[in-house]
Structure formats: structure tokens, C-alpha cells
Amino acid sequence: MIYGIGTDICDIRRVQAVLDRQGERFAQRVLGETELAVWRQRRQRWPRRGLSYLATRFSAKEAFSKAIGLGMRTPMTWRDCEILNEAGGRPVIVLHGALREWFDDRRLRAHVTVTDETDYAATFVVVEQS
Predict the structure, then answer these.
(1) What span, in angstroms and rounded, lies between the C-alpha atoms of 125 and 23?
(2) Tens digit of pLDDT for each residue in 62-92?
(3) Reaction catalysed by this chain (predicted)?
(4) Which residues are annotated binding-site positions for Mg(2+)?
(5) Which residues are annotated as a binding site?
């Protein structure tokens, strides 16, 4: 049964503007530990890919927060929700701490897709309840 659906579109140019103002602090606030390591690696090798990665993760977390119906309120936090990739590239949502407990207590399962194009990143999340 579908518990919730969330979608988000993010203007990558706005993410760049925030990075220009705040530097890495913005990424440290939004990304979990594993995401942060990936972002730093991509940013170093290909700055544009690093920017797109950050924008898609920001967008995915916004969409996920909408799908679970909490918005950005506890237990939903930026860093306790990570959007990682399986070996084949498929994005998956990995939760930590109180958010994971909240999610598991409700027997929820999430599906996520992310995409980006020149100026925009977009995400769609479906959360199911078993």
C-alpha cells in the first residue's frame, strides 16, 4: 500500500550560489558521512559532477521528507537520510538513527529516482507500507 509520494525539483544554479556563499559548510549540513565522501571525491575530479551530486541529494531528501509526511521536522534530518547508489548505480535511501527507527516502526519501504540536466535536479520518491 502506498504510504506517500514526494517529488522535488531543484535549481542547480541556486545550489551553486549557496556553495559560493557558505562553502563546504552547506554540504556538511546536508550530506551524511558517506555522501560527503562521494561529493568531495566527485567535486575534486569533476566540479560540475560534484555540484550535480549535491543538488540531486538535496532534492531527494526534500522529496523523501514529503513522501513520509514530516517535511524537515524531527525525526527527519538531512544527515540521517542518505541517498546512496548500489553497485549498478541504482539510487537507494539509507536511513540512520531516530529516523531509521521511526521508518522501521511503521514498516515502510522507499523507492527513489533522481535525475539532473544542465540547470535542474529532480527526484521522485514512493514510500510503501507493508
Answers:
(1) 28
(2) 999 999 999 999 999 999 999 999 999 999 9
(3) apo-[ACP] + CoA = holo-[ACP] + adenosine 3',5'-bisphosphate + H(+)
(4) 8, 62
(5) 8, 62
